[in-house]
Amino acid sequence: MGTNPARHGLPWRVIDVPLSVLDLAPVAAGSSAGEALRHTTELARRTEELGYHRFWVAEHHNMPGIASSAPAVLLAHLAAATSTIRLGSGGVMLPNHAPLVVAEQFGTLEALHPGRIDLGIGRAPGTDQVTALALRRTMEGLSAEGFPRELADLMNYFSGEESGPITATPGRGLQPAVWLLGSSGFSAQLAGMLGLPFSFAHHFSAQNTLPALTLYRQSFRPSRWLDEPYAMVAVNAVCADTDERAEWLAAPAGLSFLKLRSGRPGPLPTPEEAAAYPYTEVEREFVLQRREGQAMGSPETVRRQLGDLLERTGANELMLTTLVYDVEDRVRSYELIAEQVVGGLRRDA
Question: Which residues belong to any copy of the Luciferase-like domain (predicted)?
Answer without folding.
Answer: 20-316
